[in-house]
Amino acid sequence: MRANFRMQRLFVDASLSMGAAIEASSDQFNYLANVLRMTDGAEILVFNGRDGEWKARLSFPSRKRIQLTPTEETRPQPAPSDLHYLFAPLKVGRLDYLVQKAVEMGAGLLQPVMTQHVQGKITNLDKLRANVVEAAEQCGILGVPDVAEPVKLFDLLEAWPQDRRLIYCDEGDAGQNPLPLLSTIEERKLALLVGPEGGFSEEERARLRSLDFVTAIPLGPRILRADTAAIAAMAVIQAAIGDWN
To answer: Given 75, 92, 108, which residue is the final one in a domain?
Structure first.
């Protein structure tokens, strides 16, 4: 069932079930009452990443409170996405864009990875998670990706589960077409690793290429920025061996 983009969507932490009223947070109250100027009896869509999407009716038990009462399930909760997205943090503006697009493209986990040439850093995971929620609200996604703590690349590889294929974008690859390489992958558990704006170091590339669970892919004949490469790689993976296939 497709998303209804004519109605306002709101993420909530509480469990959702028929008739069980939930309290809007102070930020949500301000948004609904003062920004959108919604009134008693108005309806919105709510979701929590667990219980599907529900139509909910607003009520004002007091001047400073809003309650949301689910009245109808509009979409059931889908199976969670299992595509892990691993990325070297970018500078703030581009990092926000990258996170939003990763959510839209179906990432189930966002994992910041600290590489040798990384230029950005993660200073506020709560802000990153809020960006994930906002992207899910705007694009109609019901599953909200987890956001993991940053980890160093070599530490990540050391503890990597052998049943998950790690695909990484190698700007030094001599080829141009990723599809033949992707077609050889048999694992259904997948992860994508995109490096920093300065690329992977030679030491990192050598380490990645030495591991049996890693597949290096090119992304065509043009040089792509890190955020563009992430979107292109996620699209081609989803189309070739992911949930578009």
So the answer is: 75
Calpha distance 115→125 (Å, rounded) = 18
Q: What is the pLDDT of residues 48-74, one digit of tens each?
A: 999 999 999 999 999 899 999 999 999
C-alpha neighbours within 13 Å on the C-beta side of residue 58: 25
How far the first Cα of the chain sits from its last, in Å, is 18
pLDDT in tens, 90-125: 876 788 888 899 999 999 999 999 999 888 788 888
Looking at the fold, whether 159 and 232 belong to one and the same domain comes out as yes
DSSP secondary structure, 183-230, as one string: TT---S-EEEEE--TT---HHHHHHHHT-TTEEEE---SS---HHHHH
Range of the domain at 43: 9-75
Q: What is the CATH number of the domain that holds 192?
A: 3.40.1280.10
CA–CA separation, 70 and 68 (whole Å): 7
**175: DSSP letter:** -
Give yes or no: residues 91 and 69 share one domain: no
